[in-house]
Amino acid sequence: MKVELRQDVGSNKVRKLRNNNILPGVIYSRGQDTKVVGVNNAEFIKVFKDAGSSSIIYLDLNGESIPVIAKDVQRHPLSGHVTHIDFQRLKMDEKIKMNIPIVLLNRDNIKLQPSLLLQLLDQVEIECLPTYIPKTADIDVEDMDFTTPKFVKDTDIASMEGITVLTNLDEPICSLSPPATGSGDEDFEVEEVESNEEITA
Fold this sequence. Notes:
four-stranded mixed sheet
């Protein structure tokens, strides 16, 4: 994904960038100067849709290929449109800590029905070299029952070589329960008062 250095800082110039379909952003790394950049909005949306925040993106900056992750993607609070991106530059020989989204596989094919699936955790923290970064932490829920939750240790990345899971392995990710019973419309008796009975306050 091609990016360009920019000198135009300040709210007015940034607004002009966005009007020209250019997203403002920065590339930062420990021990290096932060680079202020711009990237084509449509191109970023296309790449980010596939890579998300947990896959390596290679930025083309003046012919230099820079491995990064989209560390912070800021969005407009009303429209949801991307307004700014922080790219974290990766050192391929240096481990990185990051959060990986959890994906519940076969959640629409759970054999035990009727049932309610409750997800308790949506991401796990890991540490690894950039080349080992997984896109997601997957866990299959098709054969779940009502008595045994799924834990972090049940995810595919928990046993992957080169990846250290920092989240407690015994932390539950999801549980399955039977649907609630009762409609809330239970019949109840109304005690009638005889018409000739004297009612006092």
